[in-house]
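In this supplementary section we document a worked example of the pipeline. Step one takes a protein sequence of length 171 as its only input; no multiple sequence alignment statistics are reported here. Step two produces a three-dimensional model, which step three serialises into C-alpha cells for compact storage. The input and output of this example are shown verbatim.
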Amino acid sequence: MDNNGIFAAPDDMNDPGQALSGIDNGARIRAIKALERRGDAHSIKLLVEALKDEYFEVRETAYQALRKLGQRSMPELLPALKDENFYARMYAALAITDHIVQNPDGKYDEAVVDALTHALLDKSIYVRRSAHDALKVIEYNKIFKALVGSLDDPGDGIPLEAVIALGKLGD
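The serialised model returned by step three reads:
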C-alpha cells in the first residue's frame, strides 16, 4: 500500500475485502482480481457483493471473475438471484447462465433449477432472459440424454420414435 492508501499492485493486497469498500475504482478492481485469484468461499461472497457496486467497471470485473470461478461460485450466485439490487440479480443470472452454457453436460441440482425458475418471474427482462437461456440448456440436455438412452430400447418402435424426436430437437 502506498502513502495515499491505494494498493500498488494486486499481489500487495493483504485485505482485498477492505479495498472493495474504498473510494478508488482502480483499487476496487485490483481487489476483485486478487479475490478471483484466491477463489475461496469468502472471496466469492465478496465478489458477489461487488456486483452491486455503483460503477460499471467494478461490477463487470466482478462478474468476469465469478464467470471464471465457474461452479465454485454457484452457491453464492444462486441467492443473489433474489437480491433486491438489480445489478446483483442481473450479473448473477448472467454468470450462472454463462457457466451452464459453457458446461452443458454438468450436473445441476434442484437448487439451481429452482433458483432459475424463480428468476423467470423477475421484474427485469435481463434476469428473466438469462434464466430462460440457462433452463433451456438444462432441459435440452435432459431430454437429449433420455432420447439417446432409448435408442437401445428393445420395445417395438421406441428406437425409431427416439430418432424422430431427436431429429425434431434441432427445430
